[in-house]
Fold this protein.
Amino acid sequence: DVVMTQTPPSLSVAIGQSVSISCKSSQSLVYSDGKTYLHWLLQSPGRSPKRLIYQVSNLGSGVPDRFSGTGSQKDFTLKISRVEAEDLGVYYCAQTTHFPHTFGAGTKLELK
Amino acid sequence: EVQLVESGGGLVQPGRSLKLSCAASGFTFSNYYMAWVRQAPKKGLEWVATISTSGSRTYYPDSVKGRFTISRDNAKSSLYLQMNSLKSEDTATYYCARHDWFAYWGQGTLVTVSS
């Protein structure tokens, strides 16, 4: 199985600060079609997960452009510019290149 | 507006069965792969099953293979998860999700496996 390693496990930030979350996979996430199926999700407290970014860098519908995703092969990063209160929660990376699909353990973003 | 509404969760004894349902609306259900993802209490996300548009192909992790069966009824825009031989470690909130890179999720239904 592909192991997804997220760091850091938690982040304490001030509103307006910028942060980055890392996600590393144990295998390349490039599929046979040449695309990379690495996605980022946010689970706000008490809510269902919400997809933020798909295929490394594509913003989901209605997601603010304060969010951006970069990376390739096995090394990926989610950046949040100018954190707002609504951004707090647990961030997960997920890969759907390989079966079984797997998730990172999550990064909890909290207010400083 | 895309909506996914799960139902069927509850308290069940180990070894028994339970069937979850997910009612979809706001999109052409038959055009999309669908998935179930679960989250044990205070834990992370775990993919449970995926089904193709026609239902002819299904995929599972080893943790549920042979015990869980995903199915769909495109005429009813509904997704199902039949769970047999339930174990305490299957206790979780089960989410239905549209599989185009987990674009949409339901609110989840809680399954508790306990005697």
